[in-house]
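Aim 2 progress. For RNA polymerase sigma-70 factor (ECF subfamily), the working sequence is reproduced below.
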Amino acid sequence: MPHNADPRAQQSAIHALYSDHHSWLYTWIRKRLDNQFDAADLAQDTFTRIHIRQEANKIKEPRAYLITVAKGIISHFYRRKSLEDAYLEYIALQPELITCSQEHLHIVLQTLEQVDTLLNDLPHNVKKVFLMSQIDGKKYQEIADEMDLSLITIKRYMKQAYVQCLTLMEDDFFE
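Predicted structure tokens for this construct:
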């Protein structure tokens, strides 16, 4: 929280922003999503993010600001939904011995989301090589042949991906 921010002024500003624009934002989001429940959640998430940032009293163009924040939240929602769908599809193709509790499923999806975020910072080919190796279980030479790259390039890409993973894991561990 900024040193000179008045908590009461912040609270008043977020309350006014919510009162004046919640219904409009919900409608805007609802037009972009498949159901009203997700729209309600994402509208709430938008105001929560603004409240956490302590920026409500600095907003000059409320609707433009709300749209900007909401677009990021909607993008995150679709990325997470895509990961969830891919994981559930993968599980459906597995033998019946794999059963997950809701808690386990939530943990796996959260982990997949973190890995996806981590990998998005990598160049496209590095990410593709890493996923082919780790998800598809392909050998480095198979990947090199399929992508028409040298084996040394595949190894370099894998090293780059592992270094990225380790760096981010260390950052999270020591925070």
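The chain has seven helices and no strands. This observation will guide construct design in the next reporting period.
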